[in-house]
Amino acid sequence: MTSFLMSGRKRGLLDHAAQRRLTRDECEAYENDGVVYVSKVFGLGWIDFLCEAFEVALENPGGLAEEYSPVGGTGRFFTDLDIWQRIPQFHRFVFESPAAKIAAEVMGATRINFFYDQMFIKEPGTLARTPWHQDQPYWAVSGHQICSLWLPLDPVRKESSLRFIKGSHRWPAHNPHHFLDDSPYEGTGLPELPDIEANLEKYEIMSWDMEPGDCLIFQSMIVHGSLGNASLDHRRRALATRWCGDDARYRRQAGEVAIPTSDPGLSDGDLLDCDLFPSITL
Ligand SMILES: O=C(O)CCC(=O)C(=O)O
Question: What is the structure's pLDDT at 73?
Fold first, then answer.
């Protein structure tokens, strides 16, 4: 607890009153392309804060933590999720950082439920890719106002950053696969994505060099993925937080679902308001 308070004081940037507003062009890019790169939107106090929080999380992995790099492979691709439920620094980020307001602004939402958080770490030399996928088919939620904020804690070059297919948030839902072994989710009845990697020239791919303080905001249906981290000489750490707006409703579709990770006590068509998906005061 002490360490994150100190890091906040160190830079004096935890007060999000200083946060800049998104521009109209940024909001339009999100709506049209399904993703927007937003520069210098988080104060570096928050980045310091999360760097320390990541250390705490790495020392205390949860039951849902996974290693995606193959055993014996180079590097390390680590993930953990629902961290805000266990580690106070992540809880604080959800409720006090500018993230909820940024998500509401970009989606034009008047209300926000927090959905979940997920940390990703790719050590240098990691060959494991993030497979091309859409997020929403992994989740028991319907609606259009659903987005992720992907906030890197380290400088990231395009070669190791997320890649997006422009406009693919308008594609229909495709079947999720487990990142660990690429096995398809069972019983969803959804079609498979085309082989994007083998046909990259067919798609308009968007990706950005990024600095700490920048973030990507992407709609939950956009097709995205990433190469490994063979090109950076440092870790690529990122926190993804998922946010739901006005039209989001609980919807438990057929077959396997990743999120929620426990029973939220909701019925199909319910607003998300519950302990697992708290409503955030904007
Ligand atoms: O950081 C990564 O490589 C994966 C991120 C991702 O796919 C997501 O946040 O939905």
Answer: 81
Structure tokens at 108: 């034009």
Instruction: Tell me the pTM.
Output: 0.94
If you ran DSSP here, which 8-state letter would residue 184 be given?
B
Instruction: Compute the distance from residue 180 Cα to the ligand 1 centre, in Å.
Output: 13
Q: Are 78 and 222 in contact (CB under 8 A)?
A: no
Report yes or no on 21 lying in a domain.
Answer: no
Q: Is residue 126 part of a domain?
A: yes
Res 217 pLDDT > 70: yes
Could you tell me the residue range of the domain that residue 90 belongs to?
Answer: 43-198+205-260
Task: Using most ligand atoms within 8 A of CB, pick from 120, 207, 220, 235 the residue to mutate for ligand 1.
Answer: 120
Say yes or no to pLDDT of 19 above 90. no
Q: Would you say residue 6 has pLDDT above 60?
A: no
Crossing angle of helices 24-33 and 99-107, in 10° steps, is 70
Nearest CA to ligand 1 atom 7: 225
Measured in Å, residue 120 CA sits from the centre of ligand 1 at 7
pLDDT at 211 exceeding the cut of 70: yes
